[in-house]
C-alpha cells in the first residue's frame, strides 16, 4: 500500500494508497480537532489550499458529539463532507493531557471528561471501536505518552504496556474490519513509538513494533517540551529502526524548520496545530520569516501577506485589510490568516516532494532555512 518512490539521502518521497485516495508524501496533515479546522475553515476550502489529509481527534469526537452520532450519520467523511483521507488519533494523548483524574491499568485508562466530568474508560479495544465508528482512513494505536521528565523505570514499564496494547489494537482492528456493518472495512492502523528521551528504550521499542507488521509507524511523545536538538537526536537514533517501506509519522511537529529537518531524517507524515493557531492570532508565515499582522507597520501596506502566494487570502486581499479585520475582531481576518498559513505549509510540502524527486533536497533545505532566518520563523 505504501510505495517508496525515491530516496534522497534519508529523505523519503512516497505514496500511500488508501481507500480514500493516494497520499503523496512528505505530507502535512491539517488538524481539525473536532471535525473542523479552527478559524472557520470548511472542508469545501480544503481543495483550494492543497490539503491531502484531514486529522481529527478521537477523544474530542467521543466526548462530543459522540462517535455513535458520527456513525449514525454515516461516518466522519459523510458527516463533514470530505471524501479524501482522514487520520484519527487514538485519544491517548488527550486522555493523558486534558482529562482529569486518570488511573492507568493494564486494561486501559479510567478518566473523567474535561467537558462534564463524566467518568469514561478507554482501552485499546474502545479506542479501535471509536475510530471504527468514526470510519477514518487511518487509525492510530492506543498508547501512553509518558511525560518527558518521567523516570527511566516508569517509561520502560509504560512502553512495555504500550506494546501489549498495540497487539490488542491490531487484533481488535482486524475483528472490526471483518464485520458486515463496519463503515470502512479497509481502515489502516499505525503503531506509535514511545520512550521519552531514552534512546535505547525507543530503539528497542521501534525494533519490536517493526516486527508486528502495521500499516505505518509514528514517533510520539516528542515536541512536548524537549529541545529541538534533543528531538533531532531521537529521530537520528530511532528512524533507522522503523521500516523504510512503511510511512514514518512524526506526531505533533512542528515549525517549518522542524519539518525540513525531520524530512531530512526520513520522516514523511506530519501534523501540527501551529499554522492554524498562529493564524488565529494574526501571525502569518512567509519565506522570509513570520509576520505579526497586528503590527502598526502594516496599516497602509497594500501588498498581500506574501507576494506570489496563490492562497485565497493573498490572491485578493492586502495586509492592511486583513490587519483591519483582525483588529476589528471580524472572523474573516482570522479565517484568511489560517487559510494562508495552511496553504504555506501544504505548498512547502509540495516543494519538498519536488526537491526529493529531483535529488536536490539538501540544497533546497539550506536555501529555505536561510530564508526563514531572515525573520524569526524558528520561534514558535
Ligand atoms: Zn497566501
TrEMBL record:
Tree of life domain:
Bacteria
Segment forming the signal sequence: none
- The residue ranges of the tRNA-guanine(15) transglycosylase-like domain are 10-371
- Textual note on the cofactor: Binds 1 zinc ion per subunit.
**What are the record's GO terms for cellular component?**
cytosol
Keywords of the record, alphabetical order, are: Glycosyltransferase, Metal-binding, Queuosine biosynthesis, Transferase, tRNA processing, Zinc
Q: Which reaction does it catalyse?
A: 7-aminomethyl-7-carbaguanine + guanosine(34) in tRNA = 7-aminomethyl-7-carbaguanosine(34) in tRNA + guanine
Pfam families, per the entry: TGT (PF01702)
Q: In which pathway does it act?
A: tRNA modification; tRNA-queuosine biosynthesis
Question: What is annotated as the active site?
Answer: 89 (proton acceptor), 271 (nucleophile)
Residues noted as binding substrate in the record, renumbered to the chain: 89-93, 143, 194, 221
EC number(s) in its UniProt entry?
A: 2.4.2.29
Task: State the needed cofactors, names only.
Answer: Zn(2+)
User: Which stretches are transmembrane?
Assistant: none
List the residue ranges of the region (RNA binding): 252-258
InterPro entries reported for this sequence: ArchSynthase1/Queuine_TRR (IPR050076), TGT (IPR004803), TGT-like_sf (IPR036511), tRNA_ribo_trans-like (IPR002616)
Binding site residues for Zn(2+): 309, 311, 314, 340
Which GO terms are recorded in the biological process aspect for this UniProt protein? tRNA queuosine(34) biosynthetic process
Which is one GO molecular function term here?
Answer: metal ion binding
Subunit details: Homodimer. Within each dimer, one monomer is responsible for RNA recognition and catalysis, while the other monomer binds to the replacement base PreQ1.
Family stated for the protein in its record: Belongs to the queuine tRNA-ribosyltransferase family.
Q: Give the protein's biological function.
A: Catalyzes the base-exchange of a guanine (G) residue with the queuine precursor 7-aminomethyl-7-deazaguanine (PreQ1) at position 34 (anticodon wobble position) in tRNAs with GU(N) anticodons (tRNA-Asp, -Asn, -His and -Tyr). Catalysis occurs through a double-displacement mechanism. The nucleophile active site attacks the C1' of nucleotide 34 to detach the guanine base from the RNA, forming a covalent enzyme-RNA intermediate. The proton acceptor active site deprotonates the incoming PreQ1, allowing a nucleophilic attack on the C1' of the ribose to form the product.
Output this protein's name. Answer: Queuine tRNA-ribosyltransferase
Organism taxonomic ancestry:
Bacteria, Bacillati, Bacillota, Clostridia, Lachnospirales
The gene that this protein is the product of is tgt
